[in-house]
# Entry
Amino acid sequence: MRHNYIPIDRARHARIKCELEIRGLKLTDLAQRIGVGASAVSSVSLGKAVRRKSKSTWLLC
# Structure
């Protein structure tokens, strides 16, 4: 089985967390607002996953 390497973007993750903190929010708050788990938001912010389907459209970049 072949696994594709997905680079983790810790700098982007830190920027997102910083922007949320400025607004008085955390990743868990964002996850709750858009109706997904905190791990999903964290994975997307790290670049480990891309959100393709959802009840609402959201973008983290």
Summary: The longest helix spans residues 10-22. The radius of gyration is 12 Å. The chain has a mean pLDDT of 80. Helices lie at 10-22, 27-34, 38-46.
